[in-house]
Amino acid sequence: MIEDSLSAAAITGGLATRFIGQEVTCYPSLPSTNDVAKRRAIKGAKEGTVIVAEEQTAGRGRIKRRWLSPRGSIALSIILYPPLACLPSLIMVASLAVAGSIEQVTGLKAQLKWPNDVLVNGKKVCGILVESDVRGNKVDYAVIGIGINVNLEVSEFPEIAPMATSLSQELGREVSRRELVQSLLAEAEKLYLALAAGDLVFKQWRDRLVTLGKEVRVSSGEATYKGIAESVAADGSLLLRQPDGSLLKIVAGDVTLRR
Ligand code: BTN
């Protein structure tokens, strides 16, 4: 087992950022880091404050799913106060930051799957849940919740085993979570600042999506659609070319690659 402390001091020590991760609170166990981050944001926490938990007991995924965060994984939430126009791009910032940090720290190749999964060798290693509160045309706060399967044996969790993997499993050795968190926070800040400067984070995200050009099935609410995932729009929606030739814009859903 490698030395792998996720204390606030270990994360902030030598962290190459201006604001993301300069304030960190680590908990041994929490129901959900996103819930604590939201409460802290409402009370006016500094932009870039990060909440980390060694384990979550009620981790939340998209579409009211459960997210498993046992010890050995990373569960963290970043508090931001972006302009409204940047809100849809936070998922792009987060997925690119996770993929970049996995590649830097482990050398593994990471892929992005629409809308918010990061895969290694075709299996999910990370899920991202962005939650926000908007009043009028102002974002009160946004919280980017990130869960990464780092040092764990996915086969011990039968409900996720078929479609999930972990970094240690793919690499054959354990990974320093401290290094990964530091790299992730630095990447997130770089991309978030690029977004504010009007740089094309969207293009980088689109170009990394493994989903595009593939035959897919998309479940969105009660409906299921089939077609070719042709592209994505700047707001993050998927553009699906249906068998009748029409182009359908899907804002939220789950994609299964058909071949
Ligand atoms: C998904 O793939 O459905 C998204 C999963 C998001 C999980 C993270 S772990 C940290 C943060 N706290 C939560 O309760 N959820 C997010």
Protein architecture, described:
This protein has six helices and twelve strands. The protein is α+β, with helices and mostly antiparallel strands. The strands form two sheets. Strands 1-2-3-7-6-5-4 form a seven-stranded mixed beta sheet, sandwiched between helices. It binds biotin (BTN). Biotin binds next to helix 2, strand 3, strand 6 and strand 7.
List the SSEs and their pairings:
Elements (H helix, E strand, L loop, with lengths): L7 H5 L11 E4 L5 H10 L7 E4 L20 E7 L9 H17 L3 E4 L3 E4 L2 E13 L2 E11 L18 H5 L5 H20 L4 H8 L6 E6 L2 E10 L5 E4 L5 E4 L3 E4 L2
Parallel strand pairs: 1-2
Antiparallel strand pairs: 2-3, 3-7, 4-5, 5-6, 6-7, 8-9, 8-12, 9-10, 10-11
Helix pairs in contact: 3-5, 3-6
The structure holds biotin.
